[in-house]
């Protein structure tokens, strides 16, 4: 009897994953902020008859909403604040252009710092992208009645409205989905330990783990912050706890009340941001109960170390130098935008900016596979145009259209997190409906412009492909570990001359490594491999932070111990360059180095 081979899927696995939306919980603070930020200007415009000003304000709120991603309260304020400032600058540059050719020149000029900002961290990368995006929007939405100053003022008013709404989320800062998702792991573990039907409870625990993974790793934004990194650290350390708990349930054993209370405390601390108290494992009880205690103790210890790590040097992690790959991204963006603007101007299109806007959105740096984004942008735009055409054919402009604008605005934060194609569909339909309130807007023409912009990106991206092949992850980590080893050597030896410059160079190299990994995490073809390397970045940063603290306190380490730590890192560097080092092995080695540097 012969076995039949399973049919092969028509699409590759990575593309199928890219087409599948992530199941990420809704952040209601963002939903409410964006719905009000975009809906209120439209409402005021309808009440006062100042539709053009209302459209500009709602577009400004749209600019700020793109940067409002789930994270800590301070992180959200900083991210939206940077987007408000840079978005307004980009819009002013586009609105001030006196003619079409000057507008094209302004777009190309803004494109260079926009791409370079992608190497300066997540906040500046996001702000730089919005600076370019809304510079292009301003070149296409010229007002015949408002001055440039008035246009920029109304646009900025919409941005500031959204920023004020984000500020107002302070009372709800502890309910962010990332915190709740990680806390849900411990809640589900406790329910499984107490459940009469352990199989169903085990399935709920699996669902909680999958949800936490999607929120922390699989989201479309992949924004990074200290809080998010600490939550990811907890997620990775939760595995021994989950395994021990499942084993206890399978064996019919009950964990101690002390362990249960520790799990409840962890769930509460994940939601509020508090630091859990120290936990010492119990040597009594069965081997499975001891394994659960050890898992809790290791997680608490790792979290406390990460929480109390020196963070004053975070400002050093801004990328101030640019390599070959960065200038290749600049060249690709400028070429695509030059072609897009040239085609729009030479073809005599009524609103040529939409082609350039498509190219800028697809080529946004640090956003993963350009091919996948191009395909999803095209598919999403087609869906968005069809939605807008349907609504515009059935619903008259004005008051009747306002509820649909508010609903689409509320869907925007969910779409950003879950799927780029879904985001493209929602934002396309939303912009078409917004513009239809103030002027005639040709939806079908925008669809053609989008497809032309996608074609430009695919052609130019294919021609410049050899320029984007960077070094392997092992080589990048080897360079980073070597720099950290050199810095640790000088810091622990009490060397003062040249140490600040070396510290800045080390942080820049770690920021470059983080950016490269973030790019691969956003690419579904390489995401699973990059994820295995991700926890190591945080350990390297903590090693540098601990060494900095020793140097600032003028507390040199024991010379022999310092030499052993540095020797371990240099051996690891050689192994990364010559052999196949597993990410988990590197992570464990660096954790031991960190414990030695920090004196733990």
TrEMBL record:
PANTHER family: MULTIDRUG RESISTANCE PROTEIN MDTO (PTHR30509:SF9), P-HYDROXYBENZOIC ACID EFFLUX PUMP SUBUNIT-RELATED (PTHR30509)
Cell location: Cell membrane
One GO cellular component term noted in the UniProt record for this chain: plasma membrane
Ranges where the Integral membrane bound transporter domain occurs: 342-460
Primary localization class, coarse: membrane
The species this protein was found in: Saccharopolyspora hirsuta
Transmembrane segments: 77-93, 152-172, 334-355, 375-408, 443-464
Membrane topology: Multi-pass membrane protein
A Pfam family per the record: FUSC_2
InterPro entries: Memb_transporter_dom
Protein name: FUSC family protein
Keyword terms, alphabetized: Cell membrane, Membrane, Transmembrane, Transmembrane helix
Family: Belongs to the YccS/YhfK family.
């Amino acid at each position: 009897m012969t076995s039949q081979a399973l049919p092969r899927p028509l699409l590759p696995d990575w593309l199928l994953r890219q087409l599948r939306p992530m199941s990420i919980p809704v952040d209601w603070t963002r939903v409410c902020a964006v719905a009000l930020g975009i809906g209120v200007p439209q409402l005021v415009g309808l009440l006062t008859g100042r539709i053009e000003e209302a459209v500009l304000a709602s577009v400004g709120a749209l600019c700020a909403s793109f940067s409002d991603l789930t994270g800590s309260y301070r992180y959200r304020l900083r991210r939206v604040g940077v987007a408000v400032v840079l978005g307004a600058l980009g819009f002013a540059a586009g609105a001030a252009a006196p003619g079409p050719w000057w507008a094209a020149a302004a777009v190309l000029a803004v494109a260079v710092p926009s791409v370079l900002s992608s190497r300066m961290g997540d906040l500046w990368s996001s702000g730089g992208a919005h600076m370019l995006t809304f510079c292009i929007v301003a070149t296409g939405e010229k007002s015949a009645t408002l001055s440039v100053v008035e246009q920029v003022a109304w646009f900025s008013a919409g941005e500031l409205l959204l920023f004020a709404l984000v500020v107002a989320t302070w009372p709800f800062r502890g309910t962010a989905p990332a915190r709740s998702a990680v806390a849900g792991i411990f809640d589900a573990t406790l329910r499984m330990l107490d459940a009469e039907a352990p199989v169903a409870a085990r399935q709920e625990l699996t669902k909680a783990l999958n949800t936490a993974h999607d929120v922390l790793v699989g989201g479309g934004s992949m924004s990074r912050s200290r809080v998010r990194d600490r939550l990811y650290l907890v997620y990775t350390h939760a595995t021994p706890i989950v395994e021990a708990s499942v084993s206890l349930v399978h064996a019919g054993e009950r964990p101690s009340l002390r362990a249960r209370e520790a799990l409840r405390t962890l769930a509460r601390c994940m939601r509020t941001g508090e630091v859990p108290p120290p936990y010492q494992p119990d040597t009594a009880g069965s081997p499975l109960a001891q394994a659960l205690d050890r898992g809790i103790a290791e997680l608490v210890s790792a979290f406390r170390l990460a929480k109390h790590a020196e963070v004053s040097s975070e400002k050093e992690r801004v990328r101030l130098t640019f390599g070959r790959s960065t200038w290749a991204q600049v060249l690709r963006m400028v070429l695509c935008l030059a072609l897009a603007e040239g085609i729009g101007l030479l073809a005599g299109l009524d609103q040529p900016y939409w082609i350039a806007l498509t190219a800028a959105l697809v080529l946004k740096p640090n956003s993963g596979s350009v091919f996948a984004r191009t395909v999803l942008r095209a598919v999403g735009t087609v869906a968005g145009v069809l939605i807008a055409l349907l609504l515009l054919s059935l619903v008259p402009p004005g008051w009747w259209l306002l509820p649909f604008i508010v609903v689409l605005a509320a869907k925007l934060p969910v779409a950003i997190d879950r799927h780029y194609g879904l985001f493209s569909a929602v934002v396309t339909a939303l912009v078409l409906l917004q513009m239809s309130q103030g002027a005639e807007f040709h939806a079908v023409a925008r669809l053609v412009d989008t497809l032309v912009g996608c074609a430009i990106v695919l052609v130019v991206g294919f021609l410049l492909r050899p320029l984007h092949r960077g070094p392997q992850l092992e080589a990048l980590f080897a360079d980073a570990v070597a720099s950290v080893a050199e810095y640790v050597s000088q810091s622990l030896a009490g060397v003062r001359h040249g140490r600040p410059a070396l510290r800045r160079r080390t942080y820049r190299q770690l920021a470059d490594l983080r950016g490269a990994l973030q790019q691969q995490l956003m690419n579904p073809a390489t995401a699973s491999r990059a994820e295995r390397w991700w926890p190591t970045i945080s350990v390297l940063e903590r090693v540098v932070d601990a060494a900095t603290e020793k140097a600032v306190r003028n507390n040199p380490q024991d010379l022999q111990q310092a030499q052993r730590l540095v020797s371990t890192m240099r051996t690891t560097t050689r192994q990364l360059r010559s052999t196949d080092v597993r990410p988990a092995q590197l992570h464990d080695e660096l954790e031991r180095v960190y414990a030695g540097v920090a004196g733990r």
